Amino acid sequence: MNGWDREYLQNKEVYLKLFDNIMSREQETNVDFLENNIKKVINRKYAVIVNSGTDALHFALISHGIKPNDEVLVSNFSWISTASCISMVGATPVFCDVELNTYHMCLDSIKKMCSNKTRAIIYPHLFGNMSYIKDILLFCKEKNIIFIEDSCQALGSSLNDLKAGVIGDCSTFSFNANKVIAGIAGGGAFLTDCEKKADIVKKLRRMGKNKDFELLGRNSKMLLFNAEVINFRLQKLNEYKKQRQKIANFYNTSLKKLPIKIQSVSNDCDNVYQRYTIRLKDKKTRDFLCDRLKANIHYDKPLSENSMYKNIQYKSDDCKNAKTICDTILSLPNHPWVTIDEQNKILNIIEMSL
Ligand SMILES: Cc1ncc(COP(=O)(O)O)c(C=O)c1O
After folding, report:
1. Which residues, in sequence order, are bridge partners of residue 190?
2. Are residues 294 and 200 in the same domain?
3. pLDDT above 70: percentage of residues in the chain
4. Which residue of 33, 44, 145, 337 could cross-link 3, Cys pair, CB 3.0 to 4.6 Å?
5. Do 245 and 312 reside in the same domain of the chain?
6. Candidate of 72, 176, 220, 222 to mutate for ligand 1, largest count of ligand atoms within 8 Å of Cβ
7. What's the CA-to-centroid distance between 341 and ligand 1, angstroms?
8. Which atom of ligand 1 is nearest the CA belonging to 52?
9. Which of 313, 156, 314, 168 is nearest to 240 (CA)?
10. Residue 190's domain is classified under what CATH number?
């Protein structure tokens, strides 16, 4: 599903040279070069590189002072970290439903689930797609709710020239293997325009250390080689995006005639297509096709239905749309190195199965 083994073969010389260069130097952990490049790409004042997107989200909440008893609104259709970071700070995740066509958080559900304890919202740009969220942002401003942009899946996407990662009070990115730009050992970034918040996250990733240990942090520093790999791949972001869009266009055109739904993408969205997903008519059809394609499901249940939430305090809307999407969704391989032959084979299997 990710294709980085193929990318390695195309760039083997570069990676071997990088490795040799790093191994011949004194050990160092300075990743300023990557932070400078990320903040330039996104157009934010500060970027702090950490070890995962999960750490970036967790540190985002700590730096904004979210604490036990606070409530944080969150999508019920996302990767688990979008919500588990809320429980990690002892606050209560409040699960909201999503729109059936875009898979993005739904304003009605946000309004319904908002209470006088709501301090923040974590909003994921799911699968790289971006929707108009002016009304959600206005609502948050009115209610003094901190808007945390979970851009982990959307590096390279934009809506009307507004890049994913510049919209919220702060934003987060992930470099795990299924992302548009990946490290060899994952990774994450926290972005903000507030120097104070950036400084807090810098301390948190270093066991809370400044002059002495000021905060309860952990070791979330990135390995230098990993940072160099991410930095090299970052230069190819546009090239990889174009290839993902080309594959998405192929699927869009060829699947049109089949009884399949696809995620609605606004004409104004330059979607990086971190994933290309389809929706089938019911769970049985989806499971059958998933088996035949040996494809993956993102995600098979709403976050609130995971067993960990039996033991953790949370609140949830009834989230009918999230449930419907989870029952019918399927991800098709769409990384930049999927060949035309492979795309045709995938299409063939879908056509034969429906
Ligand atoms: C939407 C979203 N948020 C957060 C994360 C967490 O990132 P990481 O795997 O780097 O911890 C992911 C990763 O899959 C994600 O897709």
Report:
1. 48, 172
2. no
3. 100
4. 337
5. yes
6. 176
7. 30
8. 10
9. 156
10. 3.40.640.10
